[in-house]
Amino acid sequence: MIRYLTRKFFYGLLVMFGVVSLVFFLFQGFGDPARLTMGQSGDSLTIQNIRRELYLDQPLHKQFGYYLRDISPISVHTREEIKSKQLKGFFIGQDAAVGIKIPYLGRSYQTKRAVWDVLMEALPGTMILALAAILIAIAIGIPLGVLAAVKKDSWLDTSAIFTSILGISAPSFFMGIVIAYLLGFVLSDYTGLNMTGSLYDTDPFAGRTPELRNLILPAFTLGIRPLAIITQLTRSSMLDVLNQDYIRTAYAKGLSTAVIIWKHALRNALNPVITAITGWFAELLAGAFFVEYIFGWKGIGKVTVDALEKLDFPVVMGSVLVTSFLFILIGILADILYGLADPRIRF
Predict the structure, then answer these.
(1) Could you say which of 158, 164, 299, 301 would form a disulfide bridge with 289 (CB–CB 3.0 to 4.6 Å)?
(2) Which of 19, 16, 6, 106 is nearest to 55 (CA)?
(3) Overall number of domains in the chain
(4) pTM, full prediction
């Protein structure tokens, strides 16, 4: 298993290098970072100093090398760079210090805050939203898929298939607008829900208070498509498993239908479902941009969209890198879950 994880980690590094290269060269030439940082009021000397600080006075290949060094968790920096960039980590050495650090993603052009701090402040909101959405999809999708397989060709099966097709076909941004308008505006007196809102409400007197009801609409909207996929996959996988010889043997031994379906059949049908769950969880982390923006939910998606509107490219670039890393991490986790769900799989 250690060899397997080492190999996956190495492949993950190669993928991240590709993503980093693409992000760096893709955002070259979009405006002058020094002007975007200072605005039109900056004098020439200040602009020159900022260009030197951002390595814009260096050739492109050197800029790329400095960028790799900044985002690498293990790197060498001068003490002056550690102080000026406020790098967080553990460093050994005097003039040239080797250290393990939090990746430095630059500073926001607009707020002048470290991009890492901006994204880590928004990440919990996205994680909670994605987790709530995937839990809704699992809690409804797996039982619905199992029942559709057991009641094959019945009205329940037909209804589940029809509903899941609608769910797959409906874009999240369109469903978000419809759900926000109907449940958060038209029927708000009955639902008690708001069109927009984040995890916390800030009151000048009461302070910061959690508002979990603001999670309901965006989580439900974000969970519609994975719910439909999980339902379809569970149904299809269960139909294959229920035709296996060991299921007929279990019936012949006198085991109850509930034990056979929920304990024996479902466990062996879970592999494709786990693939969908982990894949969609990563997708939700990265793809919640429009849903977060529609519902005013403060997460990485909303922060990224706001940054794009303001041409705050360091925040956008950092967001892409963080979500790519989460994709890779969740992919490795999915492979581990395969082995736990199905003992026949070996690493």
Answers:
(1) 301
(2) 106
(3) 2
(4) 0.78
Does one domain contain both 189 and 305?
A: yes
Q: Report pLDDT digits (tens) over 59-89.
A: 888 888 888 888 888 888 888 888 888 888 8
Between CA 119 and CA 102 the distance in angstroms is 13
d(CA 277, CA 230): 7
Tell me if 109 is assigned to some domain: no
* Whether 38 and 129 share a structural domain: no
Same structural domain, 91 and 128: no
Contact by Cβ (8 Å): 318, 115: yes
Which residue stretches of the chain are H helix?
2-26, 33-38, 44-53, 60-71, 79-84, 115-150, 155-169, 172-181, 188-191, 216-242, 245-252, 257-259, 266-268, 270-287, 289-295, 300-309, 313-341
Least confident of 47-51, 95-99, 104-108, 158-162: 47-51
Please report whether residue 107 resides in a domain.
Answer: no
Quote the CA–CA distance of 127 and 192 in Å, as a whole number: 24
| Shared-domain flag, residues 79 and 158 | no
Determine, yes or no, domain membership for 258.
yes
Give dist(CA 242, CA 248) in Å, integer: 8
Residues in the chain: 347
Strand partners, 107: 114
149-187 core/surface letters (b: 16 or more CB in 10 A; e: else): bbeeeeeebeebeebbeebeebebeebbbebbeebbeee
Domain span including residue 146: 115-341
Q: What is the CB-side half-sphere exposure of residue 292 using CA atoms within 13 A?
A: 26
Q: Which one-letter amino acid corresponds to residue 208?
A: R
Nearest Cα residue to 28 out of 329, 271, 317: 317
Please report how many Cα atoms fall inside a 13 Å half-sphere around the Cα of residue 160, on the Cβ side. Answer: 27
Cα angle 332-297-15, degrees, rounded to a multiple of 5: 25
